[in-house]
Amino acid sequence: MSATSDGRDDATDGCGMDGCEMDGCETGAVRLELSRILESPAFAASPQLRSFLTYIVERKLQGEPERIKGYTIATEALGRDASFDPSADPIVRVEAARLRRMLADYFRGPGVRDPIRVDIPKGGYIPHFTPAGDSDASAAPPAPAAAIRGPHRPRAAYGAAGAFFLMIAAFLVYRSFEMPSSSPPALAVATVHDDGSGIPVAAFKGDLPVVLVAAIEEDPAARLPGGFSGAALRDKLARALYRFDEIGVTDTADAADYRLEGHVSSDQERLFLSFRLVYLASGEIVWSSLFDVASEGETPDLVQERVARNAATAIAQPYGVIFNHAASRAGEDGAQAAGTQEGLACVLRTFSAQRRFSADLNARSRACLAGLAARRRPPAAIHALLPLAYAEDVRSGTDPASRTANLQKALDLARRAVEIAPQSARAHQALESVLVLLGRHEEALAAGRLALELNPNDPDIIATHGGALVMSGDSEKGLALLVRAGRLNPDHPEWYTVMTVFGALGAGKSKLAEAEAESLAGSTALSALLARLLVAHEAGDGARARAAMRALDAEFPDFAVDPDPTLRAVLPSSALRARLVGAVRAAQDDKR
Questions:
Q1: What CATH code is carried by the domain that includes residue 443?
Q2: Which domain holds residue 401?
Q3: What is the C-alpha separation between 395 and 197, in angstroms, rounded?
Q4: Are the C-beta atoms of residues 136 and 70 closer than 8 Å to each other?
Q5: What's the whole-number average pLDDT of the chain?
Q6: pLDDT tens digits for range 133-190
Q7: Mean pLDDT calculated for residue range 99-111
Q8: Which has the closest alpha carbon to 319: 179, 486, 435, 180?
Q9: pLDDT band at 120; cut points 50, 70, 90
Q10: pLDDT higher than 80, residue 548
Q11: E strand or H helix at 75
Q12: How many CB atoms lie within 10 A of CB 524?
């Protein structure tokens, strides 16, 4: 791909005049095919990809291939303004990858018999139209491919097991940085520890937990609404799980750590969808849930989408079923994980450090992640979590002298994570977190919006974006996201609560701020102490404000001497900083 003199990427390379003809297809037939694609359920649910595809197809049909560039796609199809800079905002590359994936999925599924195939060759954004009879791919059987995310995962050949898993296989090499090899790697063997009870302590097969989404059983007597099926629900479950960077999805039992099973039944008015998650090493059921939904009021597609999202969030979020279960087996710091499971140990350590900040645990998490990233090609999640660990050090205020260096390191690592895996929601979340600390609010919010688009079901990503909005001055919107994230993740990290306090104060909701601050009692984290101090001060509670100030003096002796550097380091909102400076001075005056 070339670049224009102003730095905007030019995706017309590789398309001379001959290459921009209609590829042997009539213009009217191509437009009819476009309408078929746009009417499919997947594209109907994605306005951004509809706009992207329509734009590039119409530009080619109208003989304007020179306008099919990253900059024009962003500004004319994706809603970016004229200041769009492709070097700072990867939206076009990310959306192009999604579009290629959805087109491939469409032509393996709903569009398998369509007369024209549409694809977007890599290296540019100009679409290619192929009559179905000329498409070798449409007649060829699926090729063997990697089954799951992760550099040490087995490969498996898929037959008619489902189009989605074929799509996963095609993209996993990219997502996990696995290099092609002449022969597939051997199946990773689980190392099992025994804690004396005969139950395996940690029997995971590789770096990250992997889920097999089994066929969803349908009650033979059930009268399911048209368009509702176990196969469709299974597909949506797999898609929703795949959005989480720390979870692998497979269609092969030998490669899985967990099996997600489901059953659908109904009566005349309601649908009953039951699920359970089985840990394959021991056969124990680690989670089960029943979704009872009305069969009227929502389309079957929306019901399946909602249920799949809710189930995936419960199972795959950082503090959800799988990682809580893994921590119960390997320890929250991953200490009991086998050597072949170093990635899992790093992830558990990182999530534990973020749940309730510990400088020691965060330092060990950072060292673990950095070592893994340096020694071999780990899953994308490892690269994305590393800058978050550096950002956590900055927020903690425990080492103010290293703040500038740690922030620059975090920024470099976050950008690298996005470059390595632009489809990684966690990488974009990391970039947003670091940019917020740097006070670069517009860039941070852009990264956060992209993270949410890639995975709208992850409470950590929702809460991070909510906090970024609060720090940028949009407390109402930020608070709404933080409250939502807290509901999705009842066992949420402490920083959710801290940001909710600041959001509530910014939105003028003092009662909510006071209620949330109460749950921070006993915490010695800098941000928690600051939140408690500000709430007490603005409530006129001098005794509680002095108590919070004493705790700050004890934990952070330099803070009382000169609070401004610390506040600037951990609180990017100038308005909140000003209010806290007033609270600190008032508490200090009360002590005299």
A1: 1.25.40.10
A2: 338-457
A3: 41
A4: no
A5: 79
A6: 655 443 333 333 333 333 333 333 333 334 444 344 433 333 333 323 322 222 222 2
A7: 83
A8: 486
A9: very high
A10: yes
A11: helix 70-76
A12: 12
The DSSP letter of residue 179 is P
* Among 237, 97, 229, residue whose Cα is nearest residue 165: 237
- Asked if pLDDT for residue 18 goes beyond 50, the answer is no
Nearest to 564 by CA among 584, 545, 548, 549: 584
Dump strand ranges (E) for 100-253.
Answer: 116-119, 128-131, 145-146, 155-156, 210-218, 248-250
Is 463 a member of any domain?
no
The pTM (predicted TM-score) of the whole model is 0.68
What does each C-alpha distance from 215 to 306, 316, 423 come to in angstroms? 18, 19, 27
Domain boundary among 90, 117, 139: 139
pLDDT digits (tens, 9 = 90+) for 91-101: 888 788 889 88
How many CB atoms neighbour CB 405 within 10 A?
12
State the amino acid at position 252 in one-letter form: T
Cα distance between residue 451 and residue 428, in whole Å? 5
Decide: 94 and 454 in contact? Cβ < 8 Å: yes
Based on the fold, state whether residues 126 and 259 are members of the same structural domain.
no
* CB contact set of 6 (below 8 Å; sequence gap of 6+): none
445 and 421 co-located in one domain:
yes
Domain CATH code at residue 588: 1.25.40
Query: Could you tell me which of 457, 464, 583 has the C-alpha nearest to residue 517?
Result: 583
**Distance in angstroms (rounded) separating the CA atoms of residues 253 and 148:** 11
pLDDT, average across residues 93-119: 84
Give the integer Cα–Cα distance in Å for 317 and 241: 9
Spatial contact of 381 and 365, defined as CB atoms under 8 Å apart: no
